Amino acid sequence: MKDQAKDTYDALWVSHTSLSDFVTCPRSYYIKNVYKDPKRGRKIKLMSPPLALGSAVHEVLETISSLPKETRFNESLIDQLETVWEKIKHEKGGFANENLEEQYKKRAKKMLENVTVHKGPLAGPAVKIKMDLPHFWLSEKDNIILCGKLDWLEYLPDTDSVHIIDFKTGVNEEATDSLQLPIYFLIAQNCQLRPVTRVSYWYLDRNNKPQEQPLPNSQECVNEVYKIAKDIKLARSLNRFKCHYGECRNCKSLEKILKGQAQYVGVDEFNRDVYILPELTQDDTDTSIIL
C-alpha cells in the first residue's frame, strides 16, 4: 500500500458530498470545495435552517455512537441537543426569526425523541472505525482518496458482519440512483475488516426503524465513483468549472457570497467562513451532510 502519511496531503480527496456537488453543478463544486476568500484565506460555507437541523441531529447521534451500548442513552438526547444547538442558534443557523428557529428545533427534538423510544439497532453492539475521517486510496495511480463519515455501523454477531445505517433528517427521500450508500459501502469495506451485509436509510422524522436498501455492487461502485473523481481531477487541472446551465439554483445562491450579497455569521469548526441568505431561510431541500 502507498505511504499514506507521505502522500495524502497532495492527493485529491473526494466524498459523497463533493462528488454530488460536481455532478450537479461544477461551478457549485468549485465555490464549495476549491474557492478561498482572498481576504480571509478560508473556504466558504452557505448555511440554511435545514442544514443546521441536520448538522445538530447528526452531531448528537455521532456522540452516542462512540459510547458503549450500556451507556448510550444515560444522558437525554434532548439535553445533548440543547448543548449542540448553541453552535447554530439564531443567525448562525440561518434562522430569520425566533418562530422559524423554534419550528426547526421542535423537528430536531421530535427526531431524537423517536430514536429514544425506538432505539432499535442503536441499543445494540456497534462498530466504530478508528479513524477521525475514514478514507482509503480509491486510486494510488491517480492519487485519489475517497473519504466520508458513516453515521452508524451496526454489528451483526450472527454473521460477524456490519449493517450501514445512514440517518436522514430531510423531508425528501434519497434518490434511487444516489451514490451515498454505495460510497459508504466502499468506505466500510476498506476501512474495517468485517463484510458489509446490509445497508439502510433511517428517515428519523417518520420511520421507527431503518429502511433497508439493496446491497450495492462493489465493482460498479468503484467504477462510477472513480469516473466522477477523474472528471473532477481534470477540471481542477484545467481550472474549468462551468455550470451545466450557465446558472442554476445551486451555484446562483453561492455566487451571492462572492458578490458580497450574503451575510457573514462567523467561522465553523472546520475553519470555513459561514454565510447566510435570507431567501434560503424557508428552504427545506438542501439537507444532506458528511460528518
From TrEMBL:
Instruction: Give the domain of life.
Output: Bacteria
> Matching InterPro entries, A to Z?
PDDEXK-like_dom_sf (IPR011604), PDDEXK_AddAB-type (IPR038726)
Occurrences of domain PD-(D/E)XK endonuclease-like (ranges): 14-252
Task: Specify the protein name.
Answer: PD-(D/E)XK endonuclease-like domain-containing protein
